[in-house]
């Protein structure tokens, strides 16, 4: 481990990707992720890697496809509108079983939207990041340190399951500086070998094919079923969440990324007032950390999901809670960041409801 | 109550407020505290106020966005108009009076008025009014050890700009003794 330095989230993502063995980065500028691409432009040539500003987001994701097919750790980054453009390429990567890392430093939408922080691409990332039967592993860091750390996991998970992986950040995390301790650099030569790549076989083995076109329905079905077995394995082994005072909480908040930090402050303030609140912070959005939420079902009395959108992850929370307790939602959208006081106000409301329900018994 | 300092630094783009914020953040880092630095990057940067939020705390920082600062450095009129009324009770406002015509009422806080930009110009480095303000804020709040402040400056000024480091240190002294 090295000395702690102050870094922007965007820069920490870039530096750590290089340290995790990424040697190909293809991007296109867009606020609020531009520092990531700018950092890559400066650093990548110094480690013998390739930085390329593509002519479009679509070109960039297809370059990731190409570099990944040749066996390299490759990455692209953008913000919401640009990530929409990458949807086609990400679907092709899933269909071709190609690993790769895609960063989304979210901003407000829909359309060109705004440039302030948002979490309104949750559905896109976890449900429909491109057409077809496929999923995407999605990590949601909440600190600059976690941004630096999760890049390693993102590349490892991508390679292990041969799937694209997304890191879903937002403008606040991308722009803010926090102390970060960077991990040891991994040399690309030391990474596990891949036997499926198309980098030339020198007549020493049968040739490999990387492709997503299958015109025989039964063949395509078999491939999709096989891929979903891998997804099942991911759901069983890769769920991650952090819990904070949730074990004995009456009111369990669920929030990810930047919003989870605000909720942590609100939970502390609620505890100071004698309200038993707690927090579950999903670190993986897909697979959704069902186990962590299910563990609180016997003790919790109500749930509150807080997001910077109109209510997206709340669907996943409701699926797990499955009617056992009320699940409420509080959100701000368009780039507005909720305050700890607003969230505390909502917690107080729910606490009052629980009290009056108790009085009725 | 935990030991926390939330600072807003606000003014025009180009006055070095993000840099001064970084200096304060590094002071926290050197003393092994929790630290965050968040710039405004929205459309307001292109018009009136560029600002950044800095938090120093003994506990993990929840929201890095400071809405009610304990300390404010304001270097233009729109910034002091916007932030002075929301400074916390017992908070500190450092106002650069070279660029501010009138200070709004903020009876809840201590307002320190100094002609920082003029002082910087008189000393021969007019770009360092930001650091004079930071030095003055330190003199009022002692948000870190004195030695830390200078160590942090060494972290913030790149080694290839050694002559700037000396000037920045001088500016700090001017602010601390103002």
Can you put this structure into words, describing what you see?
The complex is a heterodimer of chains A (361) and B (178). Chain A has 361 residues and is an alpha/beta fold. Chain A has two domains: 5-198 and 210-237, Rossmann fold (3-Layer(aba) Sandwich), CATH 3.40.50.970; 243-360, Rossmann fold (3-Layer(aba) Sandwich). Helices cover 42% and strands 18% of the residues of chain A. Chain A is built from twelve helices and 14 strands. In chain A, strand 13, helix 11 (313-321) and strand 14 (327-331) form a beta-alpha-beta unit. In chain A, helix 1 (9-19) runs parallel beside helix 6 (144-161) and helix 3 packs parallel to helix 4 (80-95). Chain A is globular. The termini of chain A are far apart. By secondary structure, chain B is an alpha/beta fold. Chain B has a single domain (4-176), classed as 3-Layer(aba) Sandwich (Pyruvate-ferredoxin Oxidoreductase, domain 3), CATH 3.40.920. In chain B, 38% of the residues lie in helices and 20% in strands. Chain B has six helices and six strands. Chain B has a six-stranded mixed sheet, with helices on both faces. The longest helix of chain B has 15 residues, at 162-176. The relative contact order of chain B is 0.17. The mean pLDDT of chain B is 93. The chains are: A alpha/beta (361), B alpha/beta (178). The A-B interface holds A 4, 6, 31-32, 114-116, 171-172, 175-179, 261-266, 268, 335, 337, 339-340 and B 22, 25-26, 29, 34-39, 41-43, 60-65, 67.
Of all chain pairs, the largest interface belongs to: A-B, 25 and 20 residues
The counted number of beta strands of chain B is 6
- List the uncertain runs of chain A: none
What percentage of amino acids of chain B are in beta strands?
15-25%
The third-level CATH topology of chain B is Pyruvate-ferredoxin Oxidoreductase, domain 3
Q: End-to-end distance of chain B, in Å?
A: 31 Å
Strand order of the largest sheet of chain A: 3-2-4-5-7-6-12
- Tally of helical segments of chain B: 6
Provide the domain count of chain A.
2
SS content category of chain A: alpha/beta
Number of spatially distinct domains of chain B: 1
- Helix-strand sequence of chain B: EHEEEHEEHHHH
CATH class of chain B: Alpha Beta
Tally of extended strands of chain A? 14
The H/E string of chain A reads EHEHEHEHEHEHEHEHEEHEEHEHEH
Radius of gyration of chain B: 15 Å
The CATH homologous superfamily of the largest domain in chain A:
Thiamin diphosphate (ThDP)-binding fold, Pyr/PP domains
**Intertermini distance of chain A:** 56 Å
**How many alpha or pi helices of chain A?**
12
Instruction: Pick out the low-confidence regions of chain B.
Output: none
